[in-house]
Amino acid sequence: MKLYDAHNHLQDDRFAGRRAELLAACASIGVARMVVNGACESDWPQVLALARQTPVVLPSFGYHPWYVAERSADWLRELEKLLDQVPAAVGEIGLDRWKPDLPYAGQEEVFLAQLRLAAERNLPASIHCLQTWGRLHELLREHPRPARGFLLHSYGGPAEMVPALARLGAYFSFPGYFLQARKQRQRESFKQVPPNRLLLETDAPDQLPPTERNRFPLTDAAGQPLNHPANLSAVYAGFAEFVGEKVEALAARVEENFQRMFGGLK
Ligand SMILES: [Zn+2]
Question: Are 238 and 208 spatial neighbours (Cβ–Cβ below 8 Å)?
């Protein structure tokens, strides 16, 4: 079975010095491709280096809303240069009104500039959204979007919005974290996702699955738990169980969806 991780952060500093070991574990469970999302200018070069070293890595470059204040005057040109160098997606981009003390000012401008770039080049865009779904929907409706679609990673918006977002071209990716008992609302929303718009993700090193499903326990230097990217197999198993589908059938569907969304990049 070939597995596809629609969203992780293998370049994260918390994984420093351990990437070869992590990738070996991913190979052992059948990970065929993972989309590694940069979050700001300072980690884009690491994402590029990983993509050059490892064919399993599909690079994605973007400014995450948490880091927009760090952007240089040249950030957009830097992003374009990277997209010229290597077949890549755009992300992680987005909007966040959840994180305490994070200014909202500037987020929409940075998000829209990157969405425009993805639309112009027809690249997949990976979008983070917390507590501002109505506004995101409005912006997506009013602006050009990539013809191939875009990914709402760890979709935690209302179930009722799924059909309207799907009509705009949305794919929805499910993280292992939503298998936690208290994430029932988020889990249930995925029952509204059209079968051809579903993807799975780890968001490693974040969004741990429940302890009993964590097959690759990992901690950082300070002993804090990290989500191992090879927990992707636990996401497949947990989601298949949740929707009552055979994991092989789920895997075949996710592979098709992944190739439609992230395949054929130039
Ligand atoms: Zn992420």
Answer: no
| Distance in angstroms (rounded) separating the CA atoms of residues 6 and 89 | 11
3 state DSSP class of 73: coil
- Residue 97 makes CB contacts below 8 A (sequence gap 6+) with 104, 130, 131, 132
Q: 259: helix, coil or strand?
A: helix
Which H helix or E strand runs over 4?
strand 3-8
pTM for this model (two decimals): 0.97
How far is the centre of ligand 1, averaged over its atoms, from the C-alpha of 32 (Å)? 19
Tens digit of pLDDT for each residue in 49-85?
999 999 999 999 999 999 999 999 999 999 999 999 9
DSSP letter at 59 equals E
Report the chain's C-alpha Rg in angstroms: 17
* C-alpha to C-alpha distance for 33 and 58, rounded to whole angstroms: 7
Q: How far is the CA of 57 from the centre of ligand 1 (A)?
A: 15
In sequence order, which residues have a C-beta less than 8 Å from that of residue 37 and are 6 or more positions away? Answer: 7, 8, 9, 47, 60, 62, 64, 91, 92, 126
- What is the phi/psi pair of residue 223, to 5°? 85, 5
Distance of CA 7 from the midpoint of ligand 1 (Å) = 6
Cβ(63)–Cβ(43) below 8 Å: no
Q: Ligand 1 centre from 110 Cα, in Å?
A: 17
CA distance 203 to 12: 11
